[in-house]
Design brief:
Layout (H helix, E strand, L loop, with lengths): L3 H10 L5 E6 L5 E6 L3 E5 L8 E6 L8 E6 L5 E6 L4 E5 L10
Antiparallel strand pairs: 1-2, 2-3, 3-4, 5-6, 6-7
């Protein structure tokens, strides 16, 4: 179950970033966010620990609006839907990635 505290903690760190969709992977270790400027994937430590942004996905639509995100069953891929009515599939870093890419 997704903790409301986790989402509120992250929302407090995002300024001027409108969130349209969030999705935790099956293990609860990663959180994907679709928003007004880009989509991001965070490695979730705990509610109180700082979260690591491991992937920033580009806005390939040119609209600046990713409207939905969904992890694949093995969390190796992320599907991102956008305002231009396209669905894009992105590969995610494998292993313990701590640097933003």
């Amino acid at each position: 179950m997704v903790s409301t505290e986790k989402i509120l903690y992250l929302a407090a760190t995002l300024i001027l970033f409108f969130v349209f969709s969030v999705d935790f992977d099956h293990s609860g270790s990663y959180l994907a966010i679709a928003g007004s400027d880009v989509s991001r994937v965070y490695q979730v430590g705990s509610v109180k620990a700082e979260w690591n942004c491991i992937k920033t996905l580009p806005d390939l639509s040119g609209t600046g609006r990713a409207t939905c995100v969904k992890f694949g069953s093995d969390a190796k891929y992320l599907a991102v839907g956008s305002m231009d009515r396209n669905l894009r599939i992105f590969g995610l870093p494998e292993g313990d990635a701590s640097m933003e890419s």
